Fold this sequence. Notes:
By secondary structure, this protein is an all-alpha fold. It has one helix spanning about 10-50. The longest helix has about 45 residues, at about 10-50.
Amino acid sequence: MPKKKKLSIEQRIEALARMTQRGFTDLDKKIGDRLDSVEGLVRQARREMVNK
């Protein structure tokens, strides 16, 4: 097995921050998509209420 080089504490924190940032970006996108679909459903429901 290749010997794993030891990362400094700063490098570990930076790597963790990058991973976390990517995670939050994905989460933001998912939440945004969900909100968009909920808004669409609300608009559709309002339209149906008005049309009845």
